[in-house]
Amino acid sequence: MGKITDDDRKRMERCCCKQCGGKLSMKVVVYDPYGGHDVEMFCDKCHKIEYGTEKEVYHLATRFIDEFQFNYFLDMAEDERSERLNTAKICEVISWVLNELGLIDDNGVIKNKVPEF
Amino acid sequence: MITAEHITIRHGVHQVVDDICWHIQDNERWILFGLNGCGKTTLLSALAGYLGVNKGKIFLPDGQVLNAETKTDWRIKTGLVSASFFDRCYQTENVLDIVLSGLYGRLGMSCSLKASDVRKVKGILHWLDMDKKYQYPYDTLSSGQRQKVIITRALLPNPDILFLDEPFNGLDILGYLQVKELLQEWVSSGNKTIVCVTHHGNEITTDYTHAALMKNGQFFCTGAIQDVFIEDNIRRFIGKEIGVAWQDGRLLLTIPSVKERRMNDYGQNN
Lengths: 117, 270
Description:
The structure holds 2 protein chains of 2 kinds. By secondary structure, chain A is an alpha+beta fold.
């Protein structure tokens, strides 16, 4: 099995899928029925290996997409899939901003802190 | 550097890899050659730490045995390029996550995005004309684009050894040249070892130092590349009339034309 750390387990409990907001779980990903498998964080709803994002970040991202009709994936059909990909993209942007402001760390979003500009 | 001792891998009752012993030294470049279904991909996946063996042991350069404990670190030191393998692992995962997972020896991410890593990924993807695709899901890419993604994944940690399973499959001519250049740059960056599976004679060159011919899960013959790819060996290996020649450091494999075969049959019947 791959090395799953305590941080991974905490993250699984705390975070959600950055595309659909679904719950994360630890899954045995079988890529060879005769002995090839790894344990990975997984989104059951999207059926994909997923590292996830903080729930607060996902919530902000969906609001942003909704309010500004943001679309990064111009060459894809505007459907549910492109909306999920756009949400994931905005999650990355928001996470980066929060990290730069010192408002997020390995334990999640730090609330009640004055941002450092 | 890496030693496989009597390894056997079974798929049900079928022995896909059957009692193989193999010593791969630093800086050697191997061609693993065989017909479809002879066990090449399975052997490569096991050596790269993605598949367990039923019997035998694989010893790593530091003397440790490759197992569930050591496989993650070993995967970071090696790179596996195998479309047939990674097509089974990935579907809707995005390109950036897939490529970055190569840094952790896992199939998924194990750390938040770091600007320095993303820059490195985009550098390689840009060279492969793929930088605009780094946010896209794997299943929206063409086979050539997928091949570029898994090559980038393999090269990102700057591994000491690459296991290449038909690395040029699906690539157009530009992609072929770009990947070739990328691999040459990696090789020239230090003490690098390659094990490459190919079915195409024109990809077998004297840049490779050794070859292993594989048949029915076993090694038919191993040795220096120009000693292995000789007409007598290849005829016995494939079991058919086949011409073998080296031209400008490149292997030429030919079969008799239909006309030649008809003439031979006519000659034999009269």
